Amino acid sequence: xxxxxxxxxxxxxxxxxxxxxxxxxxxxxxxxxxxxxxxxxxxxxxxxxxxxxxxxxxxxxxxxxxxxxxxxxxxxxxxxxxxxxxxxxxxxxxxxxxxxxxxxxxxxxxxxxxxxxxxxxxxxxxxxxxxxxxxxxxxxxxxxxxxxxxxxxxxxxxxxxxxxxxxxxxxxxxxxxxxxxxxxxxxxxxxxxxxxxxxxxxxxxxxxxxxxxxxxxxxxxxxxxxxxxxxxxxxxxxxxxxxxxxxxxxxxxxxxxxxxxxxxxxxxxxxxxxxxxxxxxxxxxxxxxxxxxxxxxxxxxxxxxxxxxxxxxxxxxxxxxxxxxxxxxxxxxxxxxxxxxxxxxxxxxxxxxxxxxxxxxxxxxxxxxxxxxxxxxxxxxxxxxxxxxxxxxxxxxxxxxxxxxxxxx
Length: 409
Fold this sequence. Notes:
By secondary structure, this protein is mainly β. 8% of the residues lie in helices and 47% in strands. The chain has four helices and 29 strands. Strands 2, 3, 5, 6, 7, 8, 10 and 11 form an eight-stranded mixed sheet that branches. Strands 15-14-17-18-24-25 form a six-stranded mixed sheet, with no helix packed on it. A hairpin with a 5-residue loop joins strand 10 and strand 11 (191-193). Helix 1 packs across helix 2. The relative contact order is 0.12. The model is unreliable at 1-41 (pLDDT under 50).
């Protein structure tokens, strides 16, 4: 507790996170026909639901309008089956996801549930046909534009997640909406919503630190990764450079820092011991800085990534650029979804400077050392239900590259 108190004194924005989380546990919208008060009825417990966000890329705002949250004990239940419990927001609430980075939560409310085991959560959004611009984006420097949304937003975006509600107790879930991966730019100039959401317990833990404020305005991204896969992501506070990678399961993480026109930097082996671990990797006095590289600082990989067959349900192809840091870890530097309305076109603009690696230590600041592999990437195309294809050792240090992918089931 002394350590947590010290963290709160030094990180006012983390205190704000805790206050938001506590507020979410004390009130909010009610469930349909249910009181959201104390679970005093025998055989019932309370479910609280909050919304948060990984960062969005290239937008001043990403708005979704939440109408209700639905839960069911069967993972295969359809939206028209019986047995659903609903938590309705009245009126539906428009939320800018970009206000919810760095671990900040927005409580959607709470409802009573029968005690038991639940396996499905659905997030129901308002339709743009009912409320214009209910779900929208504001591109950087642009105007608000409606998102093209799948039909599932009205029946509920299906989130398969198992959790138990004990009698007389409270369970809190966080819907972590990855806006960066959920917004797809289409070839006709519009933007589509392809929701990428993970459900996690309400935890106050994670990896914290500061990035040099001189980097603000360069699209700085901070991610926590395991095995080269992004687990959590955020953007630093634009005024202070503070960041918080929240709600991480116990384990070791590689923390990856990227920014336009700068080499990638990685801190390897950052440990999260338990659900209360808050691990600093830098301080405001010695923030993380990234190596700038002389022009040209970047080259691009572009092409198409398509499916060889027509899937039975909408399936997106993700293209990721991964880089191995000498004898260190392999990390994802950048990823995008192929544009299904532009013949599967994709583009990745990548740094060609030598990546920097530092091993985690409690003694700060962490020292970074330049690694081999500058401008060398593995380009990976993947889609659910299809075989992943990986092009290894693509060297873009001298020029752009074009590579196409066709995925087979």
